[in-house]
Amino acid sequence: MISEIKGLHHVTSMASNAQTNNAFFTRTLGLRRVKKTVNFDAPDVYHLYYGNELGEPGTVMTYFPFPMAARGRAGVGEVGVTGFAVPTGALDYWKGRFDRLQVKDVTENTRFGQKELRFSGPDGDGLALIETPDDNREPFAGPGVPEEAAVRGFHSASMRLRDEGASAELLKFMGYQEVERQDNISRFVMENGNGANVIDIETLPDTAVAQQGAGSVHHIAFAVEDRAAQLEVRKALLDTGYQVTPVIDRNYFWAIYFRTPGGVLFEVATNDPGFDHDEDSRHLGEALKLPHQHEPLRKQLEQSLQPIKD
Ligand code: ZN
What we know:
The chain is α+β, with helices and mostly antiparallel strands. It has helices at about 20-30, 90-100, 165-175, 225-240, 300-305; strands at about 10-15, 30-40, 40-50, 60-65, 80-85, 105-110, 115-120, 125-130, 155-160, 175-180, 185-190, 200-205, 215-225, 250, 255-260, 265-270.
């Protein structure tokens, strides 16, 4: 079993409009944009990162806004809901705020004894705020959000799968423990993780496979401390028969990727070097940052990328 994984690192999704996406995550949810860069594999598209003050692992929601992208169709083989942790009692505040800001598809639920507010992002993204006691992570309270209600980081990612078997085994191999079942949902928890400790599997045997598009989660990344830990994880996964990419430099972390049995793309990302290694922490996310290989494209990209008004 792997012991190096510490919970979620980031969740990466797709959007159809950079401006709308930015407004939703910074103004409605009150996260901080901690990086404005480009998709390293398709540099004509932004890669926007939203998180807490410094974008600590376990707090970072990231987006590729492909202009005019068609909306995804929900189904199995993907992450259906990304959950953010808020303090106990905070949902009353968020209900009022979402009502005022006309957030779509807001519903209240209790799952595994925790109160949840589900809602949709601008592209129909499946999102939730989940009341989580004793979460001592530093909140980031964006415009108008009181600190006592602010998002602490991720609570969970919830995968929709036809069959949970092999993915449940994988999560256990990665250090998660199955703690509870409710209806067709199994909950897996990482003990002593970074706070973003929960993965749910919702089993839907008769549902069609998802079609990825705007509003779909592209992949979820799990956190390891450093490159040595990442190599340990990579070796353990290879030894178990997974096809894992080589280590890729993502400038703010190093990444490896592998496809899970249920179809969801997993990444394992390092906590270092972090988002403040190439700009002043007081000005994170303000300037367009490019990795050195794309620096020659700067002039062209500054003209072609849609400006984002904060
Ligand atoms: Zn990633």
